[in-house]
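Dear H.,

Thanks for agreeing to be a second pair of eyes. The structure we're designing against is below in token form, covering all 330 positions.
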């Protein structure tokens, strides 16, 4: 059973995508369950982290600044070169989408820092809710939305699924420690739940995106191919650049030593550069693609959502390969 479980863990992401695409007609009815899958996935993930251990580090700001600079550069560069707003907006989405809420799960499975990535996930999603309402009306003048209503709309889309489980996990930790006078530690069995919830959510999310693309979007085949190929390079570039930034800007991680197997399996001082490389790579490369699709439908040309949809494929293939390599090393 142990070997079968390792084999499934290493290939779960791409298998879940294949199931979601092939069975989208039947699985799409589960879309109302998706927010709850994400909520409990994040709740169990945040239970691993003491909020007092969350710290902002230099690579957080560097990754965020480069992400926003790439978003603007890609959009205006493509508009000047091709004058095709669908391509420009679709590829811009691949960069401006905030970090996925599941990124700490994948980072933790590979030996990254859940604490540092949780901090960046909160920062990235809040920064996006500020920047998008200011930027997208310029990119698409037809999206006539004032800043504050748009900011609150995006925040309402993000906050319940991000801050809700974070606060609930924190209250559980405070209540347990006050009642027992012991430090709260998530058991080994419960610590594995977020990954399997994430696999289930990918199945549902992929089915929803597949139905949306097939049912509503009519794009020229040339544009589809260009978005597919360009989103692949955007995915690889962001993962690679994030790893490079993290390696050269190592950030310490806090946490109980006996939790290392759950939080930072490789987080010894001499290997901190490697831990930060994994963490920053996921921070930069693993995107909240469901939010990207929603932003395209709300603020941009809806056809641009294909860029975010294609990114789902590449990031999960990339993560699946990373998990397989990490499992082989172990």
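And this is the sequence the design step returned. I haven't edited it by hand at all.
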């Amino acid at each position: 059973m142990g070997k079968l479980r390792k084999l499934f863990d290493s290939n779960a992401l791409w298998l879940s995508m294949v199931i979601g695409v092939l069975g989208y007609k039947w699985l799409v009815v589960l879309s109302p369950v998706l927010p709850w899958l994400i909520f409990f996935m994040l709740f169990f993930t945040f239970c691993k982290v003491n909020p007092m251990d969350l710290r902002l580090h230099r690579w957080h700001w560097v990754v965020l600044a480069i992400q926003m600079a790439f978003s603007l550069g890609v959009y205006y560069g493509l508009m000047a070169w091709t004058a095709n707003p669908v391509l420009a907006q679709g590829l811009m989405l691949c960069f401006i989408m905030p970090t996925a809420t599941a990124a700490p799960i994948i980072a933790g499975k590979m030996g990254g820092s859940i604490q540092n990535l949780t901090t960046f996930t909160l920062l990235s999603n809040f920064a996006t809710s500020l920047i998008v309402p200011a930027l997208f009306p310029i990119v698409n003048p037809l999206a006539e939305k004032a800043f504050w209503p748009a900011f609150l709309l995006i925040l309402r889309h993000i906050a319940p699924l991000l801050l809700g489980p974070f606060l609930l996990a924190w209250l559980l930790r405070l209540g347990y420690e006050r009642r027992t006078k012991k430090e709260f530690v998530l058991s080994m069995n419960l610590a594995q739940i977020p990954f399997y919830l994430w696999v289930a959510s990918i199945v549902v999310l992929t089915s929803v995106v597949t139905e949306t693309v097939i049912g509503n979007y009519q794009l020229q085949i040339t544009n589809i191919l260009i978005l597919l190929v360009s989103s692949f390079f955007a995915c690889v570039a962001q993962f690679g650049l994030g790893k490079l930034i993290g390696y050269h800007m190592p950030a310490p991680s806090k946490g109980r030593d006996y939790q290392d197997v759950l939080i930072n399996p490789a987080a010894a001082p001499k290997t901190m550069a490697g831990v930060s490389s994994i963490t920053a790579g996921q921070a930069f490369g693993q995107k909240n693609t469901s939010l990207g699709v929603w932003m395209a439908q709300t603020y941009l040309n809806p056809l641009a959502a294909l860029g975010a949809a294609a990114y789902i494929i590449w990031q999960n293939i990339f993560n699946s390969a990373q998990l397989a390599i990490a499992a082989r090393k172990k």
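Two observations from my side: Residues 255-270 have pLDDT under 50 and may be disordered. The chain has one domain: 32-329.

Warmly,
E.
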